[in-house]
């Protein structure tokens, strides 16, 4: 099997305040990423490919424009490249435990260079620890035209299969022990996805994030240094290796069957 952690492309002309990143683009993830020659992160309907700013960023912003509700429960919101690119560079690329994937819907007309399909959203991994064999699925943003289709389930299921299958499996996985998923307590959609994937509810972590002033959260106390930014609780789900081998894999693989709609 061969892997790659970089993409070599011509450097673009950049006129904004923050560049698209290094050239060639360094994914900088702690685990190797399967190449297109080994379609581990792919079903007949959906493909996951590393989010490369010069390829995906402008389409991402076009697809999210006019939908501020996509960021309703998040501490971030992006409307320009000057907002999006520093976040990708600082929060994702420079952290070896994080990676962001572009979700490609293979059932739609292609609008992504080099891909036979349309950009449907993003999904990522956070807090990945090879020392503990753990990670968290996050950064899930699915554009409204692709919601309530196969996209979210297939993107999430593909990651779980890759993360929890052993390296000796076919196709090979990373053999992690734990994959977690956190959601705003009122984010019913996110919670339903976790439950559909067979994840187990473990509890609620209070005051985990400080959100944007316009986001939905809990009011903080008077006089704290965040000056009115609301706080967010997170309900925590997880799927561990023993859940996976105790029937979880069959649940996810059933969801990955090629049903459209």
Automatic annotation (TrEMBL):
Residue span, N-acetyltransferase domain: 71-218
Signal sequence annotation: none
Pfam family, one: Acetyltransf_3
Listed GO MF terms: protein N-terminal-serine acetyltransferase activity; protein-N-terminal-alanine acetyltransferase activity
Protein name: N-acetyltransferase domain-containing protein
Annotated source species: Jaapia argillacea MUCL 33604
């Amino acid at each position: 099997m061969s892997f790659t952690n970089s993409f070599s492309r011509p450097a673009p002309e950049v006129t904004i305040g923050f560049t698209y990143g290094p050239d060639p683009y360094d994914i900088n993830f702690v685990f190797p990423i399967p190449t297109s020659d080994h379609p581990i992160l792919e079903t007949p309907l959906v493909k996951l490919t590393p989010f490369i700013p010069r390829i995906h960023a402008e389409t991402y912003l076009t697809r999210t424009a006019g939908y501020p509700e996509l960021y309703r429960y998040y501490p971030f919101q992006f409307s320009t490249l000057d907002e999006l690119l520093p976040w990708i560079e600082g929060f994702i690329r420079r952290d070896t435990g994080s990676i962001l994937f572009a979700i490609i819907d293979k059932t739609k007309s292609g609008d992504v260079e080099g891909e036979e399909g349309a950009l449907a959203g993003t999904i990522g991994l956070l807090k990945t620890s090879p020392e503990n064999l753990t990670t968290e699925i996050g950064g899930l943003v699915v554009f409204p035209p692709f919601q309530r289709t196969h996209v979210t389930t297939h993107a999430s299921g593909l990651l779980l299969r890759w993360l929890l299958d052993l390296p000796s499996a076919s196709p090979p996985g990373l053999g992690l022990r734990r994959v977690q998923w956190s959601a705003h307590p009122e984010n019913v959609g996110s919670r339903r996805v976790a439950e559909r994937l067979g994840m187990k509810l473990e509890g609620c972590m209070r005051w985990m994030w400080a959100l944007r002033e316009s986001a939905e959260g809990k009011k903080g106390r008077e006089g704290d240094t965040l000056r009115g930014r609301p706080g967010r609780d997170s309900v925590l789900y997880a799927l561990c290796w023993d859940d996976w081998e105790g029937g979880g894999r069959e649940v996810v693989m059933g969801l990955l069957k090629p049903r459209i709609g």
